[in-house]
């Protein structure tokens, strides 16, 4: 319990730091949102009135506090671009990106664990080479190739015809599977490499010798002793992968024209729609940190010693 | 162990090849990378145009040479920038520890909680997109935390060792201890981190330029070329394949070097 509270405290601190940095960053750049919104033709009085309306005249810390308070009560502010609540603009896109990242995550876990077990600690040059090669492929390049093969040549999907997550949930998932594969390939390679490294480190430890001396069979030891001991760093690694999946989806959504958070973010950045950018950045950060906390909780159940270390 | 030195050798061969490729590209290209040809649009690879031509009839091979140069320049500068500040922060926090260490590392963790591409996007939108120097700065800042983390661990580990105590007893100053005594001992940790950083920089540059917020014309960069190639995937698949293939090979080569360095340095 103490552990969970401590972790939630850490989550809060991280969120405040991230949100403060983003808020401050967008505050110091030149360019006035009010002037941007009204265009160059606007009279100074009009600009001043809009600044007043948007609350831009208040001191920095007041605005930050106000925004932070709003964030916790579910008010993400109003988009400069669309003049709409940011939340109503992004909630469908958030769902799309969540589905895409979860699909990628399931692919990564589902494929890298069996492949990792298969590869084990074999370190032939072929495996190293294949692994490094897969790591070297940028997701958007895979995306282009998959579009070419499956979209244009085999006509299994039509590029740019995303059905909409509310209209056709499974159709949307089917459309996004190619994007998920593009995101996953390099991460699977990294996870496999990480796994084989951890497992071979564990195999050199004394308890493996003891288990062997007691007459344990190799496979049993691998599955029951070694796997459990090496899963702590692997779970941590997978949680960190979450950040990279989200990063990957920002780019890959562009390749497949998927109307997700990433696409909206890139558009908001080029349109200088700062309330939207701030909200998205903080939501994504929250997501990544949450993944870290979940992994910590899972790890405590795998290795109860971690629990003791905290209680002391 | 044989595999390690093999991967180091192959990796070095590939990396040196592309490095030379980029250097030659700065001085000489078979065609002008910006010269358009009305009668030679979207030609398939042939002896005259090794990688074919693009939608404006420009020679893709020449453009890839220039683009490799741009991509490598951005990646090198980014890594140098990130490593310099990252190692400086890591050295100070690792050596002194205490409150400063705790605060800086907390900020560090908060920053690494964000996907690096997201952070780079935000920073570049602050600095203004489309300029090479801003791209380098944005990516460089993004890479500081990872270098700081790696070097902090290394510096903290070596600060407790006897040779540091003896250096202190002999009256060496803090700066001298950090730069001349500790830094050489962290090289084995830093070198693989540098190769990983370089690869991440290449991939990040490509992604950002692909999104249209990295390098912009007239500079050719591999990522930007891929975003152009996307429209011609059907009529000129080689455009996309050649450009992407070069990115893959560069990252592959440097990755092998890192792999060889890491394991070779650690175990022998």
Describe the overall structure:
Chain A is mainly α and 312 residues long. The radius of gyration of chain A is 24 Å and the shape is globular. In chain A, α1 packs antiparallel against α12 and α5 runs antiparallel to α10. Chain A is 79% helix and 0% strand. Chain A has 2 domains: 71 residues; 220 residues, MetI-like (MetI-like fold). In chain B, α1 packs across α2 and α7 runs parallel beside α8. Chain B has a single domain, classed as Orthogonal Bundle (MetI-like fold). The interface between A and B is large, with 49 and 48 residues.
What are the SSEs and their pairings?
The complex is a heterodimer of chains A (312) and B (268).
Chain A: H1 2-28, H2 33-38, H3 44-54, H4 60-72, H5 86-119, H6 125-136, H7 139-153, H8 169-203, H9 206-213, H10 218-256, H11 261-270, H12 274-302, H13 305-311
Helix pairs in contact in A: 1-12, 5-8, 5-10, 6-8, 7-8, 7-10, 8-10, 9-10, 10-11, 10-12, 11-12
Chain B: H1 2-27, H2 60-96, H3 98-112, H4 116-127, H5 132-159, H6 162-169, H7 174-211, H8 222-229, H9 237-267
Helix pairs in contact in B: 1-2, 1-9, 2-3, 2-5, 2-7, 3-5, 4-5, 5-7, 6-7, 7-8, 7-9, 8-9
Distance between the termini of chain A: 13 Å
Q: Report the CATH architecture of chain B.
A: Orthogonal Bundle
Instruction: Give the strand tally of chain A.
Output: 0
Low-confidence stretches of chain A: none
Quaternary structure classification: heterodimer
Q: What's the architecture of the largest domain in chain A, going by CATH?
A: Orthogonal Bundle
Number of strands of chain B: 0
The secondary-structure element order of chain A is: HHHHHHHHHHHHH
Alpha-carbon distance between the two ends of chain B = 9 Å
């Amino acid at each position: 319990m103490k552990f969970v509270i401590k972790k939630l405290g850490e989550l809060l601190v991280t969120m405040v730091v991230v949100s403060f940095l983003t808020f401050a960053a967008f505050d110091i750049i030149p360019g006035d949102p009010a002037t941007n919104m009204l265009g160059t033709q606007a009279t100074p009085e009009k600009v001043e009135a809009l600044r007043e309306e948007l609350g831009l005249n208040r001191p920095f810390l007041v605005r930050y506090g106000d925004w932070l308070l709003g964030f916790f009560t579910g008010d993400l502010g109003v988009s400069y671009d669309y003049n709409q609540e940011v939340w109503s603009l992004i909630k469908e896109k958030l769902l799309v990106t969540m589905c895409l990242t979860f699909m990628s995550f399931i692919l990564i876990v589902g494929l890298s664990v069996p492949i990792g077990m298969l590869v084990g600690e074999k370190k032939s040059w072929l495996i190293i080479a294949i692994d490094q090669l897969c790591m070297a492929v940028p997701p958007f390049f895979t995306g282009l190739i998959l579009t070419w093969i499956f979209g244009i040549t085999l006509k299994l999907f039509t590029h740019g015809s995303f059905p909409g997550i509310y209209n056709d949930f499974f159709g949307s998932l089917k459309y996004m599977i190619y994007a998920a594969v593009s995101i996953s390939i390099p991460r699977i390679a990294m996870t496999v490499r990480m796994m084989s490294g951890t497992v071979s480190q564990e195999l050199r430890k004394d308890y493996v010798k003891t288990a062997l001396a007691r007459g344990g069979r190799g496979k049993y030891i691998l599955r029951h002793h070694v796997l459990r001991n090496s899963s702590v760093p692997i779970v941590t690694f997978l949680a960190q992968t979450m950040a990279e999946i989200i990063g990957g989806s920002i780019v890959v959504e562009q390749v497949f024209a998927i109307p997700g958070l990433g696409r909206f973010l890139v558009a908001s950045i080029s349109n200088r729609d700062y309330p939207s950018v701030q909200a998205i950045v903080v939501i994504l950060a929250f997501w990544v940190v949450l993944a870290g906390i979940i992994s910590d909780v899972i790890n405590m159940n795998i290795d109860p010693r971690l629990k003791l270390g905290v209680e002391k | 162990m044989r595999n390690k030195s093999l991967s180091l050798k192959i990796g070095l061969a590939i990396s040196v090849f592309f490095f030379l490729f980029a250097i030659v590209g700065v001085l000489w290209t078979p065609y002008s990378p910006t010269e358009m040809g009305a009668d030679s649009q979207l030609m398939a690879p042939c002896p005259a145009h090794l990688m074919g031509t693009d939608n404006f009839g420009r020679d893709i091979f020449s453009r890839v040479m220039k683009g490799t140069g741009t991509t490598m320049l951005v990646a090198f500068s980014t890594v140098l920038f990130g490593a310099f500040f990252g190692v400086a922060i890591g050295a100070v926090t690792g050596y002194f520890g205490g409150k400063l260490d705790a605060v800086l590392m907390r900020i560090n963790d908060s920053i690494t909680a964000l996907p690096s591409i997201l952070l780079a996007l935000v920073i570049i939108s602050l600095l203004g997109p489309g300029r090479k120097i801003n791209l380098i700065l944005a990516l460089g800042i993004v890479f500081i935390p990872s270098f700081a983390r790696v070097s902090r661990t290394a510096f903290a580990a070596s600060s407790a060792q006897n040779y540091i105590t003896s250096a202190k007893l002999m009256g060496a100053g803090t700066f001298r201890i950090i730069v001349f005594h500790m830094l050489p001992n962290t090289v084995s940790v830093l070198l693989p981190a540098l190769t990983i950083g370089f690869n991440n920089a290449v991939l990040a540059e490509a992604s950002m330029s692909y999104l249209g917020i990295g390098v912009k014309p007239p500079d050719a960069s591999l990522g930007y070329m891929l975003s152009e190639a996307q429209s011609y995937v059907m009529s000129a698949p080689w455009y996309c394949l050649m450009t992407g293939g070069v990115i893959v090979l560069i990252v592959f080569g440097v990755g092998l070097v890192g792999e060889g360095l890491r394991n070779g340095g650690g175990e022998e």
